[in-house]
């Protein structure tokens, strides 16, 4: 884990479909669902493959590396994000294929660029074993 970001984080709400993902994050690992029938890796966590409809789904560890597919700088926030703007909200396409919505941390928001290489970091949740995956530029 790296230094925590200044972004808010709280323990995730676990469901049957998301528990494996959040448990892996708490261990510092990034996992995505993969269909055992067609091999498709996909995002968001669910127990049925969106490509072929199979219920044979396994969570597999991925490298945590990817590229900024799209990004925006949030200059105003609400609720717990009110006092942390500006911050980057982005879609990151993992090297393994799926695209996740996340935050880019550890960089000047103005310097984050589409196509930039990033890697996952895990922001710890206070008073909990949980962690929130975010991404930071690859040095």
Please render the helix and strand layout as text.
Layout (H helix, E strand, L loop, with lengths): L18 H8 L4 E5 L21 E5 L3 E10 L12 E8 L4 E6 L12 E8 L6 E7 L2
Describe the structure.
With 139 residues, the chain is mainly β. The chain has one domain (19-137). Helix content is 6%, strand content 35%. The protein contains 1 helix and 7 strands. The chain has one helix at 19-26, and strands at residues 31-35, 57-61, 65-74, 87-94, 99-104, 117-124, 131-137. Strand 4 (87-94) and strand 5 form a beta hairpin. It is globular and about 45 Å long. 25% of the residues are buried. The mean pLDDT is 95.
Q: How many domains, as an integer?
A: 1
Which structural class is indicated by helix and strand composition?
A: mainly beta
Strand order of the largest sheet: 5-4-3-6-7
Helix content: under 10%
Order of helices and strands: HEEEEEEE
Instruction: Please count the helical segments.
Output: 1
Give a count of the beta strands, DSSP E runs of length 2 or more.
7
Radius of gyration: 15 Å
Largest sheet: 5 strands, antiparallel
Gross morphology is globular
pLDDT < 50 stretches: none
Please tell me the overall pLDDT: 95
């Amino acid at each position: 884990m790296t230094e925590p970001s200044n972004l808010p984080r709280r323990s995730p709400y676990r469901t049957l479909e998301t528990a494996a993902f959040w448990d892996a994050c708490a261990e510092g690992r990034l996992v995505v669902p993969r269909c055992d029938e067609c091999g498709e890796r996909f995002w968001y966590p669910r127990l049925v493959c969106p490509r072929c409809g199979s219920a044979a789904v396994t969570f597999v560890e991925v490298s945590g590396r990817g590229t900024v597919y799209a990004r925006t700088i949030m200059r105003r926030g609400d609720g717990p994000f009110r006092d942390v703007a500006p911050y980057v909200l982005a879609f990151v396409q993992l090297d393994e294929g799926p695209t996740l919505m996340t935050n880019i941390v550890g960089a000047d928001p103005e310097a984050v660029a589409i196509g930039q290489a990033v890697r996952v970091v895990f922001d710890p949740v206070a008073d909990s074993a949980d962690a929130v995956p975010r991404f930071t530029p690859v040095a």
